[in-house]
Amino acid sequence: MTPKQKRLALILGGLAVLAGAVALVLTAFNQNIVFFFTPSQVAAKEAPTGRVFRLGGMVEMGSIKRDGVTVNFRVTDTAKIVPVTYTGILPDLFKEGKGVVAQGTLGDDGVFRAREVLAKHDENYMPPEAASAVDQANKAREMSAKTLKQ
């Protein structure tokens, strides 16, 4: 083998190792990425069924039902509603009419099975995605109300 061929083989080997490392990193990222969806997106079937994602919005008033440590409630963005079931201890700030982000999977029956529930931590905080979703839903509702009046 000439020195030029050795150098070329070394460069190609290095590129192969680098490509393998990049493939491993991208696979790890893909498995650990958790996307955020609103109830309107879930109703529009944009959310994956059977894959972990986050659902954010407001806990609908009068929707919390407790059965031991299992809690059933509904999350809304003021346009659509998604039923949620969670088994475990809820955060102290979890209340009706307050912001919530739940992480879990959507079943074939349309019920979101939460593995983790996060409540907003003060009166002024709401996850940016949830605040944006609520604002968009309110604007859409106002536009439809104006259209119906005309």
What does this structure look like?
- This protein has 150 residues and is α+β, with helices and mostly antiparallel strands.
- It has 2 domains: 1-33; 36-149, Nucleic acid-binding proteins (OB fold (Dihydrolipoamide Acetyltransferase, E2P), Beta Barrel), CATH 2.40.50.
- The chain is built from 3 helices and 7 strands; from the N terminus they run H-E-H-E-E-E-E-E-E-H.
- A 5-stranded mixed beta barrel has the order 2-4-5-7-6.
- Strand 3 and strand 4 (70-76) form a beta hairpin.
- The longest helix is centred in the N-terminal third of the chain and has 30 residues, at 3-32.
- The mean pLDDT is 85.
Give a topology summary.
Blueprint: H1 3-32, E1 36-37, H2 39-43, E2 53-59, E3 65-67, E4 70-76, E5 81-87, E6 99-106, E7 112-119, H3 128-149
Mean residue pLDDT: 85
How many structural domains are formed by the residues?
A: 2
> Can you identify the CATH superfamily of the largest domain?
Nucleic acid-binding proteins
Q: What is the highest CATH level, the class of the largest domain?
A: Mainly Beta
Q: What would you report as the Rg, rounded to the nearest angstrom?
A: 23 Å
Return the CATH topology of the largest domain: OB fold (Dihydrolipoamide Acetyltransferase, E2P)
Structural class: alpha+beta
Strand content: 25-35%
Element order: H for helix, E for strand: HEHEEEEEEH
Could you describe the largest sheet, including whether it forms a barrel? 5 strands, mixed, barrel
Q: Helicity level, as a percent range?
A: 25-40%
Q: Strand order, main sheet: write it out.
A: 2-4-5-7-6
- Head-to-tail CA distance between termini: 83 Å
List low-confidence stretches: none
**DSSP helix count?**
3
The CATH architecture name of the largest domain reads Beta Barrel
Number of strands: 7
Molecular shape:
elongated
